[in-house]
Each structure stands twice: as structure tokens, then as C-alpha cells.
Amino acid sequence: MDYIVENNHNNNNNNNTINSQCPTCQRQTFVKQQDQTELIKQLRHELESKDEAMERLRQDMQTLNQKYVAEINRVADVQHEKDMVEHELEELSTRLFEEANGMVAEEKRQRYLLEQELQQTQEHLLAEQNQLQELRERMQMQQQQQQGDIKDPNMARARHDLQQLYNTNCKRASANHHNLYKTSFHKQQRSSQQRPHRGSERATSMPPLPSTMEEEAQQQKNKPMSIDQVQLEAFREFVRSSPNVVFKKLHQFVYMKVCQQEDVEPCLRFGPHSRLSVKKMNEFLSRQPCFIEQHDELSQKTMTINTNAPSAVMARPLWERFSNNHNNNNNAHSLQSQQQQEYHCSACGRPADQQALSYRFRLDEMDEWAAIDQYCRDRLVAVCEFYVFIRNIQKGFYADRDIDDLYTENIRLRLQMFYSRMGALPVVLDGIGLDPGSVGKASPPLDTIPDDASDASMMSTGPQTPITQTPPVLKEEYIAGDNK
């Protein structure tokens, strides 16, 4: 446009020079100038229209771009929600299949137990029927003998006395057989397999001959008492190989598997209302001991159970944590549940008064204290003592002790877990003259332990062995104390 204006200006100058000479040329030049001016205005108007159209198109492009980005974000959110729903559906399906498999396994187990009970009942019924049949045959034989011995009164009197003695022994043997059948059915099965059933043999409830009884008594006296060599060999293999194995792999030994399945896990299973995870407690206590101390009167009055503490929450079962997270939306319900749990044992969940919760424990120094009763404290102490014993073996602190002595210590610690699980440990310790609160550590190894490393308030209840004068080696001890 500037170029056209400049040309028009030049033309005007030229035309002015020419028009000054001719009027006709001046009119023509004027008409041309008007046409050019109108053309310029028209071109400017079209250019402005084009610019406005370009601006509208640019705004439309920005709007479409924003809508496109928003649509992409919405599709991404929908895809994320879809993935979350699929993941939850997969978890629910897995849990459903696990529960179904558990129900099927439980049904099979119940069916197997019922079949075993039915088989035992049938065998017992068969034994009683055989005994009844033999008794009938003997009664018939006695009647025949009585009819034949009428002529000889002395022989009849002797047979009568012998029969009375025999019947008395039969009653005693029958009672013994009934008690033995209830307590040791498997022993009776083995004896019945060794003794084949015949019509001419004596019934199982009949007393043995005196010569047979004397021989069996003599054999029992001469038979040496011994420990199960299979379990002893498994323990010996653990003691021999554990120092060369990483602590995380100790659970691969047969001895550790048996101890965890039969003693440790049942001892940490505090009941149906337990708030502690058996698996997590077992993993933690196997690595290090926990902290247990006794309440004083002031702490008993001021302490409240913090159910929102990290250790308390993570130690609860999965469904209880889920329900607590759901109920946290309602503050009133949360406060009410805390008040209801204030006087419950943190381990077993049983209701108890404030004086019964005389102990408290925590896994780590950063955790909150949790109140427990005497029996749950005995369980935790028993498991901690057992794992202290295991760690000392793995670290080689018991290298100089005899395998029989270590196995005796093992028996003592496993018995302690059993008595703690039964709730009878205080009675057992009181029966042997020991303070139930003094149990707190395993027996010392054959090493010289400095005085500052031992706890005088905690006494071992296991068999003590002499301590040899070897270089001092610190033994790991169970962290427990009774703060009066």
C-alpha cells in the first residue's frame, strides 16, 4: 500500500505539471486520482477484514487446543480410574479364591477328622463285639464244665475259686483297656497289628499271664531312656551350620521350621481378638528383642492406649486397619472406639481392669507404649528368650558348650513358651520357687561376661553351666525390666 501511495504521489506531481498545461488532462487526472483513492480504501477495508478473520481463527485455534488438552486429561483420568478398578477387581478375585480354597481345605480337614473318628469307633465296636463273642463262648464252656464236675465237689470248688480270681482280673484289665484306648489309641493300633486276631487267642481286655508281665517289666527296666535322635540330629545340624549362614536364611533349617510352627507362632497367636500380626511380630523379634517394663502407679493412672500409633496400627490385622481407616471419617465414632479400647490388653484384646494391665511394651524406641497383662507379657518374654538363644548360637557364643547341654536349654525355652501359651507359667515358676517376674534372659554362654553387661534384676531359669576363663565376649540379652 505504501508503494501504491508513493506511485500515486509521483503521478500526481507529473500530472500537475502536465495539467497545468491542459484542462482536459487535468479532469482525467482528477478522475484517476479518485478511482485510485477508492481502490486504496477498498483494499484497506479488505485487509482489515482479513486481519479480523485471522484473529478470530487464531482465537478459535486456541479454544480448540484448550479443549483438546482438557479432553486428553479427561481420557487419562478415565484410564487411570479404569486401571484402579481393574486392580481392585483382581485383588478381590484373588481374595475370593483364597477364601474359597481355605473353605474347601477346612471342609476336607473336617471330613478327614470325621472319617478318622468313624474308623476308630468302628474298630472299637469290632473289638467289643469280639470280646462279647469270646465271653459267650467261655460262659458256655463254664456251664459244660459245671455239669461235668458235679460228681467231684473238690474240683468244682477249686474251679470256682479260680474263676472268681480270673473274673476280678478281667474287670481290672477291662477298665485299664478302656482308659488306654482313650489316651493312646495309636499305641493300641500298633499292638493290634503286631498281635493278629484269632478265635483261639485271648481278648484284648484279658489280663496277661504272670510270666509275660514279669518279662515285660524286666524289659522296661533294661530298656535305656533316650531322646528322639531325629530331632537331636536336626538341632545338632543347626548348631553346627548356623554360624556359617546369614541370619535371614536360618529359617531354612528343619529345626527352625519346627520351632516356629509348633512353638513360636502359637505363642505369638494371642487369640481371636488379637491386635498384633503374628508374622510381623515373629520377623521383628527374630532380629532384635522388644522393650517390656512394668507400670508404676502414676503411669497406670495417666497412660491411655494410643490405638493410632504407627506400631499399633501396623500390628493390627488387615480388616481391622481397613475398618479403622473407614471409621476415621467420623470423629465421634473414633473417640467412642478409643474409649472402649482404653482398658483392653493391647496384645490379646481381652477386657481387663487397670490394675491387671501391669506391663507395657513397644517394639522400637520411637513407638508408643502399649499396655499388656501378665500372661501376654510371659508370651513375649518366652519368645524373646528363645530368639536370644538362637542368635547366640548363630554368633558362636555357645561354641564351647556341649550339644546335650544346649539341647537341654532348648527344651527349657520351648517348655517356657508352652507354659506361657497355656497361661500357667507363673504357677510353674512359683512351684519351683522362682519369681515369675524374674524371667528375662537366656542362660549365659561359656564366656566371661562383664558385670556391666548383665542385668541383675533378670535371672535365668535354665540349666547353668560353668563359665570358663575365655576372652570376654558380650552376649546379646533380652531388653526387659521391672520399673518399680
Describe the protein:
Keywords: Coiled coil. InterPro entries: RAB3IL/RAB3IP/Sec2, Sec2_N. Residues 27-141 form the GDP/GTP exchange factor Sec2 N-terminal domain. The protein is 65% helix and 3% strand. With 484 residues, the chain is mainly α. The protein has 3 domains: 2-83; 154-225, no CATH class; 232-481, no CATH class. The longest helix is centred in the N-terminal third of the chain and has 126 residues, at 23-148.
Brief overview, please?
Helix 1 packs antiparallel against helix 2 (23-148). With 484 residues, the chain is mainly alpha-helical.
**Largest sheet features:** 4 strands, mixed
The quaternary organization reads as single chain
Based on Cα principal axes, name the global outline. elongated
Spatial order of the strands in the main sheet? 3-2-1-4
List segments where confidence is low: pLDDT < 50 over at least 5 consecutive residues.
168-207, 304-323, 337-341, 445-484
Secondary-structure class = mainly alpha
End-to-end CA span: 104 Å
Order of helices and strands: HHHHHHHHEHHHHEEHHHE
Number-wise, the strands total: 4
Q: What is the total number of structural domains?
A: 3
Overall pLDDT metric: 72
Q: Give the % helix.
A: 55-70%
Q: What is the percentage of strand-forming residues?
A: under 5%
Spatial extent as radius of gyration: 47 Å
The helix tally amounts to 15
